[in-house]
Amino acid sequence: MQDFAEAFTVAFGLVGALDADLVEIVVLSLRVSLAAMVVSCVIGLPLGGWLAISRFRGRGVMLVVVNALMGLPPVVVGLMVYLNFSRAGPFGWLGLLYTPTAMIVAQTILITPIIAALSRQVLEDLNTEYAEQLRSLNVTGFRVVRTLVWDARFPLLTVALAGFGRAVAEVGAVIIVGGNIDHLTRVMTTAIALETSKGDLPMALALGIVLLLIALGVNALVMSLRATAARYAYA
Predict the structure, then answer these.
(1) Cα 195 to Cα 190: distance, rounded to the nearest angstrom
(2) Which PANTHER family is this protein grouped with (predicted)?
C-alpha cells in the first residue's frame, strides 16, 4: 500500500513539475488526435449532411454500414493501415509506417464513421423540423446542408469533441502503425501500457492523470456547448 501511495506522490510530482518526457508524450498525443479529428470532420460532416437530406435507393444500406463502422475494432483498423503502409503494401513507397502520420490515418478511419453517423442524426432531425420552411424559401441542395450545419453548430461541435475523445483514448491501432517509438510515436495510451509493463508506475500514473484530466475537460466543454446551444434555442 505504501508503494502505491509513493507512486501516486511521484506521479503528481511529475505532472506538477511538467516533466519533459511527460510533456512531449502529451503534446504528441494531442497533435495526433486533433489532426485526426479535423480530417474526420472534413470528411464526416459533409457525408453526414448528405445522408441527412438525400433520399436515394440503397440509403438504408448505407446508413447501416456507417452505423456499423462506428464499432470498428481498433486492432483491425491498425492491421489494415499497417498492411497498406508496409514495404510490400500499395502505399509502402510513402514511408509513413511508424510515423505520426500513420497514426493520424488510423485514428481518422476510426472516428470518421462516428462523426458521420452522429452528425447525420443531428442534421436529419433538424432537416425534418425545417424542411417546410426551407422549401418555402427555395433553399435546396448544398445550401440546405450549409444552413443546417450553421444552425446545428453547437451540437456538431459536441460531435467533433466526441470524436476527439475517442481518438485520444485509442491504443490498439496506434501501437500497431506507430510502433510506440520513444520521442517519435509514443503517445499517452501506448506509453501507459509500456510503463506499466516495465513497472514504472509513477510515469504510467502521471500519464493516466493527464488523460483523465483531458477527458474531464472534453466533457466539461461538451456540457458548456450544450448549455450555450440551449440558451440560443430559447433566445
Answers:
(1) 9
(2) PERMEASE COMPONENT OF TUNGSTATE ABC TRANSPORTER (PTHR43632)
| Domains of the chain by residue range | 2-234
d(CA 99, CA 67): 29
Q: How confident is the model at residue 233 (pLDDT cuts 50, 70, 90)?
A: low
The answer to whether 50 touches 62, Cβ cutoff 8 Å, is no
Closest by Cα among 109, 100, 106 to 29 = 100
Helix axes 59-69, 100-136, angle to 10 degrees: 140
Domain 2-234, CATH among 3.30.420.40, 3.30.420.10, 1.10.20.10, 1.10.3720.10: 1.10.3720.10
Burial of 182 (0-12, 13-18, 19+ CB in 10 A): exposed
Q: What is the pLDDT of residues 126-155, one digit of tens each?
A: 877 776 776 666 666 677 777 777 888 888
For residue 38, pLDDT beyond 80: yes
Average pLDDT in the 104-129 region? 91
